Amino acid sequence: MITPGIRYANRADIPQILQLIKDLAEYERAPHEAVATTEAIEKSLFSPIPAAFCHVAEVDGRVIGISIWFLNYSTWLGKPGIYLEDLYVDPAYRSKGFGLAFLKELAKICLERDYERLQWWVLDWNQPSIEFYKSLGAEPMDEWTVYRMSGDALKKLGS
User: Fold this and answer.
1) Is 113 inside any structural domain?
2) Which of 27, 83, 133, 147 is catalytic?
C-alpha cells in the first residue's frame, strides 16, 4: 500500500527525477559529480531487471521529491534489506511530512518482504537530516568506514 502523495516513479517522471538529482548534488556541494542522463536513469530504473527503484512525492501533478533505493544483502542475517541511495525533497516542501512518508513507505516494504534493514548514508555536516533520522530511531554506524573505488583505480583493478 502506497502512502498518500507517494507513488512508484514511471518513465514520464524521468526529467523531474533527474532535475531533483541535480538539485540534491547542488545541496550536497557537489554539482559537478551529478553526471547522470535521462538515458542512464531510464536504463537503471525501468529496464527489465532494474538496478534501482524510485518513489516520488507528487503535489498537484508535480514531482517534488524522490527516494531512490536498491536491495542490499546481509550475509549474517541471510536476508536482503533496502539501501536508500537518495532521499530529496524540494526545499519549498520540506517539513511537510514528505521525508517521513518516504521512509515509512520503505519501512513498509521491508516489513512486507521480510527485509531486516533499511539503511543509508548521511553527510556529517547535514545536521537537520541527522536529527530527523535520530528522532525516528535510526542509529549511526560510527564503527564503520565507507570505502569507494571508482575512476582510474577501478579501471586498474578490473583490467
Assistant:
1) yes
2) 133
**Could you give the CA distance from residue 105 to residue 67 in angstroms, rounded to a whole number?**
10
14-27 helix and 38-46 helix, angle to the nearest 10 degrees:
110
Closest CA to 140 of 129, 149, 153: 129
Is there a catalytic annotation at residue 133?
yes
Total count of domains within the chain: 1
* Rg value, the chain, Cα: 16
* CATH code of the domain containing 128: 3.40.630.30
Domain hosting 118: range is: 6-158
- Do the domain assignments include residue 67? yes
Per-residue pLDDT of the chain (159 residues; tens, 9 = 90+): 445 689 999 999 999 999 999 999 999 999 999 999 999 999 999 999 999 999 999 999 999 999 999 999 999 999 999 999 999 999 999 999 999 999 999 999 999 999 999 999 999 999 999 999 999 999 999 898 889 999 999 999 999
Q: The pTM is what?
A: 0.92
Task: Give me the helices (H) in the chain, please.
Answer: 14-27, 38-46, 98-113, 127-135, 151-158
